[in-house]
Amino acid sequence: MGIIGVVNFGGQYNHLIKRRLEDSGFQAKFINPNESIQVLSRELNCLIISGGSWNIPTDIPKLGNAPQYVLEFPGPVLGICLGHQLIAYEFGGVLDSKTPEFGGVRIRVDDEDTILKGVGVEFTAWESHNISVSKEPSGFMVLAHSSTVRVQAMANPRISRYSVQFHPEVKHTEFGDVILRNFAKLCS
């Protein structure tokens, strides 16, 4: 298994991503969002773009090289919350701020794909966002939705890009460890 880089924007749950991966037997390390793509490409097998307090697209200049990571990192990339929105935006998806979600939300699985394999047809996930993805980018498929947000999870396996609006790293998300393990298995 390779090393998973967790791009750390200082979000409230970032330390849990690394901990959950390590508890599942994977190697993970925090990455400064200003690190060069060349260094990351040599040292890491995959990346997780974590959550944070900024808004896409307004605060993109505060995200350092993360937009470049989304577009150019050679291995699999998983976006969580802010990372989900960044992946959608960089590949031409549509964002809106009409449907914020906070706390426990029921997620309905449309397609298990790789990252949602083994989670069943419905589960509760922890949300903390003002902006959501209302239309997936071309080439991506919607994996899950909620009653208010059409794109809770999406994937483009052809380019190894995956993302979730919710926080799989927190205990309040059912099957969160399964989702993180499913992604980590892509990192070999």
Task: Give a quick rundown of the structure.
The chain is an alpha/beta fold. It has helices at residues 14-23, 37-43, 66-72, 82-90, 176-184; strands spanning 3-7, 27-31, 46-49, 77-80, 94-96, 101-109, 122-129, 132-135, 141-145, 153-156, 161-164.
Using DSSP, what is the number of strands? Answer: 11
Strand content: 25-35%
Outline, from the CA principal axes? Answer: globular
Spatial strand order of the main sheet: 2-1-3-4-11-10-9-6-7
Gyration radius over CA: 15 Å
Task: Compute the separation of the termini in Å.
Answer: 5 Å
Helical amount:
10-25%
Report the average pLDDT across residues: 91
Largest sheet: 9 strands, mixed
Helical run tally: 5
Quaternary structure of the protein: single chain
Structural class assignment: alpha/beta
Low-pLDDT segments, ≥5 res: none
Order of helices and strands: EHEHEHEHEEEEEEEH
Label this structure with key terms.
188 residues; nine-stranded mixed sheet; two-stranded antiparallel ribbon; globular; 5 helices
Report on this structure:
With 188 residues, the protein is an alpha/beta fold. The protein is 22% helix and 29% strand. It has 5 helices and 11 strands; from the N terminus they run βαβαβαβαβββββββα. It has helices at 14-23, 37-43, 66-72, 82-90, 176-184, and strands at 3-7, 27-31, 46-49, 77-80, 94-96, 101-109, 122-129, 132-135, 141-145, 153-156, 161-164. The strands form 2 sheets. The protein has a 9-stranded mixed sheet with strand order 2-1-3-4-11-10-9-6-7, sandwiched between helices. A two-stranded antiparallel ribbon has the order 5-8. A hairpin with a 4-residue loop joins strand 10 and strand 11. It is globular, with a radius of gyration of 15 Å.
